[in-house]
Amino acid sequence: MNVVEGTGLIVAEPHWQMLLTDEIEIEAAADYWRAVTTELRDRSLLAPANRHAIQRLVLAYVIYDRSSRIVAEQGAVTKPKRGNAKAIARLNPHFTAMREAGSDAATLEAELGLAPRRRAAATKVEKKARAARASDEFLGKAAR
Known about the structure:
It comes from Xanthobacter aminoxidans. It holds the Pfam family Terminase_4. By secondary structure, the chain is mostly helical. The protein has one domain (16-143). 50% of the residues lie in helices and 3% in strands. It contains 5 helices and 2 strands, in the order αααββαα. The chain has a two-stranded antiparallel ribbon with strand order 1-2. The longest helix has 24 residues, at 51-74. 20% of the residues are buried.
């Protein structure tokens, strides 16, 4: 497990070997993890509660990459099988998976505040100080 300076103490990186089998995808997942956690850390948005959302985002990136490679090789539409008069051209299942992964990634990026449109809305939560009232002096420490 690789720890990004300052992020591993907040959110531990998953063991990608348990989720992925291709070495290239494992390396890509680790790179995506580092990029996302570094961005969230720099903006003070990285929290342990976001670990699984970040993991799903990274897996969506990896699945998108995998599916897009296959679609680039095979095309978005599969050809009908030869010799079968009833066979028709169909949408490549990898094209559908690619679109779903892209949609999932966009949703997760928005939730985590990584999407450009959502960056301004996602800010560090600050606890507001309680406004002092005249009655506070008479109620004592129990009311505060």
